[in-house]
Description:
Elements: E1 5-7, H1 15-26, H2 31-43, H3 45-61, E2 70-72, H4 80-84
Parallel strand pairs: 1-2
Helix pairs in contact: 1-2, 1-3, 2-3
Amino acid sequence: xxxxxxxxxxxxxxxxxxxxxxxxxxxxxxxxxxxxxxxxxxxxxxxxxxxxxxxxxxxxxxxxxxxxxxxxxxxxxxxxxxxxxxxx
Length: 88
């Protein structure tokens, strides 16, 4: 079973950094995710924050096999905007 792993540190409290790392960790298993998420991460921060969790869920729903996504040290994330994106 594939196990993408994302290790976080306090510098990952930046919304764009956080979501860029999530997309990078999952892009091998959900190829559509990067194509859909990258334009948002590069241009439209407000829209990205609202839309990225749904893009992530939709892209992962198309994956034909089970994966386990490990987010190591998530407790270091304190940015309210990241914590409010309830797909984690």
